[in-house]
Specification:
The protein is built from 30 helices and 23 strands. It is α+β, with helices and mostly antiparallel strands. A hairpin with a 7-residue loop joins strand 9 and strand 10. The chain is elongated. The two termini are 41 Å apart. 44% of the residues are buried.
């Protein structure tokens, strides 16, 4: 008795047999799903890392939200007793209201406000070279540790201002240990300050040290722990001390100081700013700092601060981090558009592998009456096993791995690629099901093609041209958009279609020559390459895109590397840049004599001045240099001076000036330029980084014009040094620090470049480019292997026939190479040309300046070593996998091959 086999058992047997193609597709879907789901997680982590990198190195004065106002908080109570709450309460309460009413998420990010009021400095009667500035700060006692004596007590109140202004007043103060020593002021000693109408006595009640001398608080309160000392060698040495009085004694500031300033700040907790909320934080900070905030009214008492306006330098850092994130996303979107197309192409090839392996059984089912719907259902079941299940598994691994390793999970939108991958094999197999019973005829080679092919090719070409034109017209894009992502893929399709149109031309010429020759391999190989249906759009697209990604990645890495190097050289402007101190003429002269120093030049600090352009006045910052020294230090490299430009004074005529790009745009070629009352002429424009910092509005003049323009020759704040040949950088730095002090900052171009390159943003882009190259190489190599596999059956029959006729075994390799060689060679050429053009599109559409630290976009650059790394690695991997496939293809059994159905 024959046992009846159920339909379920037949389907299960069908799925288990010839499962090689399905296993390949399942593995491909698993990997692609894993990568597609992990990519958004990686981008989010990269954004957080880049944000952390930018924010963690920002000093407190630039990180916190700060305000500096002229005057003191409004004081309504001056009667005895003076208390901190009575004097400062209204002002601090208004600051707290401002914080709480700020847009989200600022109320959670900003800490409670700090405030400090300071008087101007005044010479003491006992020693005119000793000056005193008094500070009043609620809560300062929490940041000091008393070393000797005690903290100051509140001064006594007074009945009216007139009485206080005409009588001797006494105020208790405390000084830091270092300041008291420099002032030679002992605890308990009284010193005085005489004003126009009265005398104020200051009693030193104690000395202190900072609880955390390097803490954020003391960055906002400079010159307190250490006195300010001015000694330029031309005048007596002046020591200026800042003392703390009790904050309740604030009204006394009016008795001896005609000018006061009040600084307030909110500590900003940057650790709680994440990449996903950074844009909202920046917008809230911009809104907070855009307007002045009312803290008092004129009806509330005597004169005082009525409003404060805050500044948040940290906003620029956040926006720069967001710009880096957007540029990274833009670069990745343009580069992965091609590999996504390759992945689709390879997925289609994999589904064709499944169909080819199932063709005999499916033909049999079709011949016995199985409908197309039933065939599609059977293939859809296989699609679930090779598509849906691996896609779900890959996405799950990515999500769980992200949560366990990094505590990060993708949003719902990030799971859409995995969903598409799950459905793709089901849909592809269902669509291709009708073709299972019939062999498709290749129609995309040759000079004569169908009208539909021409229409499709024309439409794709037109779309690519339109996208390209729109991209160049629009300019830089913020982040990812469909036009940005679609353009490279459309251009890749054009390159692919062009390759398919052109490469048969030389192949036919080879076939013509082979007909007249005695060799078999070239004739048979070229003939099969022209008609073999496994060589079509799909593998050529994979190869063109894969090669182009490798080439474009190498060029973009070269452009990025060159941009960083050029920006770093321009930031230094010489071999070594020294900053962070006020430099005397004597120090500059000594620096020039340090062993290993070839030349040295100083640059002053920023001096505010008025620029008159045809009667329109603009504010600007002037930097004073010695033109001859600066030219000698800078040499032919980038820096403050444009190439071939000199600032040296002229015997007659207007003063030569070098201006920044923004100032040049304001001047706009005008001949009526006046700087500080002196006629000027623009002799050079410098755009991009300069040694004087990130300031965009500046003008450089020679020191011979300083007195006429500024009324004085200001001291230098930056020192540029060129090294003698063979000089040791470390030796020179030691010599410079011995003269200028250990607190100065010494930079070289290599150090700045290394700092930029080690940042997460640049590292992330570099890793993304190399990863895109590796993925494209693997997919392209897989496309080659699948192409050879699809052609294995007809090739095996031809080889079996040839071997029975006495052909050598090398014919297997020869035929396989002829199948894949011509389109692969053409694709490599087309992909190289196309890949060299893609960076032009990327540089036009994506702003890479945030990565280089420059205001000038990096230029197109080809580095042979970098290109050899990306393109060479791609070709090596593809060749290796192809060789493995060829080795497998040689293992053919002639009898088995000849028993198959006829080809075609």
């Amino acid at each position: 008795m024959t046992r009846r086999v159920s339909t379920r058992a037949l389907v299960a047997h069908h799925l288990r047999s010839r499962a090689g193609g399905g296993a390949i597709v399942a593995a491909l879907v698993l990997v692609l799903s894993l990568l597609a789901t992990a990519a958004p997680i990686a981008l989010g982590l990269l954004g957080d890392a880049a944000l952390r990198d930018r924010l963690d190195g920002v000093p407190a004065t630039q990180r916190d939200v700060v305000s500096s106002s002229v005057g003191l908080p409004q004081i309504s109570v001056v009667s005895d007793p003076l208390t901190t709450e009575g004097v400062w309460g209204g002002f601090l309460e208004a600051l707290e209201d401002i914080r709480e009413s700020a847009d989200e998420p600022l109320p959670e990010l900003l800490g409670e406000s700090y405030a400090i009021s300071r008087t101007s400095e005044h010479g003491l009667v006992e020693a005119r070279t000793r000056e005193l500035r008094v500070a009043f700060a609620p809560g300062f006692e929490d940041h000091v540790r008393v070393v000797e004596g005690r903290l100051a007590e509140p001064a006594g109140g007074f009945g009216n201002w007139t009485e206080a202004e005409t009588s001797t007043a006494q105020l208790e103060i405390v000084l830091s240990v270092a300041t008291a020593a420099e002032m030679d002021w002992a605890v308990g000693e009284t010193r005085s300050l005489r004003t126009f109408s009265n005398t104020v006595e200051f009693v030193l009640t104690g000395t202190f040290e900072g609880v955390d001398a390097s803490g954020d608080y003391w960055q906002h309160v400079p010159s307190v722990l250490e006195p300010s000392i001015f000694d330029d060698g031309n005048r007596p040495r002046v020591v200026t001390a800042t003392a703390f009085a009790h904050p309740a004694s604030l009204p006394y500031a009016y008795l001896f100081s005609a000018s006061q300033t009040t600084d307030t700040w909110y500590p900003l907790d940057t650790d709680r700013i994440e990449a996903r909320s950074a844009a909202q934080t920046a917008a809230a900070l911009n809104k907070l700092t855009a307007v002045s905030h009312t803290v008092a009214s004129s009806a509330g008492g005597p004169a005082g601060i009525l409003g404060v306006k805050f500044d948040a330098d940290i906003t620029g850092e956040i926006e720069l981090a967001l710009a880096q994130e957007a540029s990274t996303a833009g670069v990745i979107a343009m580069l992965i558009a091609g590999p996504i197309g390759v992945a689709v192409a390879v997925l289609i090839l994999g589904c064709r592998l499944i169909l080819e392996s199932r063709r005999p059984s499916l033909r049999l089912l079709s011949a016995r009456g199985t409908s197309i719907a039933q065939l599609r259902g059977l293939l859809a079941i296989e699609g679930v096993f090779v598509g849906a299940l691996p896609a779900i598994l890959g996405a799950a691994v990515a999500v769980v791995g992200g949560l366990l390793l990094f505590g990060a999970a993708p949003g719902p939108a990030a799971l859409i690629p995995a969903l598409l991958l799950a459905l793709a094999p089901i849909g592809i197999l269902a669509v291709l099901a009708p073709s299972v019973a019939e062999r498709q005829v290749r129609t995309d080679l040759g000079r004569r093609g169908s009208r539909l092919r021409l229409i499709v090719e024309g439409a794709v070409t037109a779309l690519a041209l339109v996208a390209l034109v729109l991209l160049f017209i629009r300019g830089y894009s913020a982040g990812v958009d469909p036009l940005l992502a679609a353009t490279p893929l459309l251009l890749a399709l054009v390159a692919c279609l062009l390759t398919l149109r052109l490469y048969p031309i030389p192949l036919r010429a080879v076939l013509g020559r082979a007909r007249a020759s005695a060799g078999l391999d070239s004739f048979l190989g070229s003939a099969r390459a022209l008609r073999e249906p496994s060589i079509g759009l799909t593998p050529v697209l994979a190869l063109v895109v894969g090669v182009s990604v490798a080439v474009s990645s190498g060029i973009l890495l070269s452009a990025l590397q060159t941009g960083i190097t050029e920006a770093s050289n321009a930031q230094v402007g010489a071999d070594v840049r020294v900053s962070g101190a006020s430099l005397t003429r004597e120090q500059l002269d000594q620096a020039a004599t340090v062993d290993g120093v070839d030349a040295a030049a100083g640059i002053s600090g920023a001096e505010p001045e008025t620029l008159d352009i045809g009667g329109v006045k603009r504010g600007t910052s002037v930097f004073v240099v010695d033109a001859a020294d600066l030219a000698a230090v800078q040499g032919d490299g980038p820096g403050l001076l444009p190439p071939g430009v000199s600032l040296e004074p002229v015997p007659s005529g207007p003063m030569p000036i070098v201006v920044s790009g923004s100032v040049a745009d304001l001047i706009d070629g005008s001949d009526e330029v006046d700087l500080g009352g002196v006629a000027a002429e623009v002799v050079g424009v410098t755009r991009g980084p300069v040694p004087i910092g990130t300031r965009e509005n500046w003008i450089a003049i020679d020191s011979s014009y300083a007195e006429e323009v500024l009324g004085r020759d200001p001291s230098d704040r930056t020192l540029l040094v060129s090294l003698a040949p063979g000089a040791s950088r470390d030796t020179v730095e030691s010599g410079l620090r011995a003269i200028l002090g250990d607190d100065v900052r010494v930079d070289t171009a290599d150090e700045i470049a290394a700092s930029i390159q080690s940042g997460p943003a640049v590292q992330g882009v570099r890793a993304a480019l190399l990863a895109a190259t590796a993925v494209a190489a693997l997919l392209s190599a897989l496309a080659i292997v699948m192409t050879l596999t699809l052609a294995a059956a007809p090739r095996a029959r031809v080889l079996a026939l040839l071997r029975t006729l006495g052909a050598p075994s090398r014919s297997a390799t020869s035929l396989a190479l002829w199948e894949i060689g011509p389109p692969a060679a053409a694709a490599v050429v087309a992909g190289t040309v196309f890949g060299a053009l893609v960076p032009l599109v990327v540089l036009a559409a994506v702003d890479l300046r945030p990565f280089t630290g420059s205001s000038v976009a990096p230029a197109y650059q080809v580095d042979g070593g970098m290109l050899a790394l990306t393109l060479g690695g791609f070709i090596a991997l593809a060749v290796l996998l192809t060789a493995i496939a060829l080795l497998v293809s040689r293992r053919i059994r002639a009898a088995g091959a000849l028993r198959t159905v006829e080809e075609g």
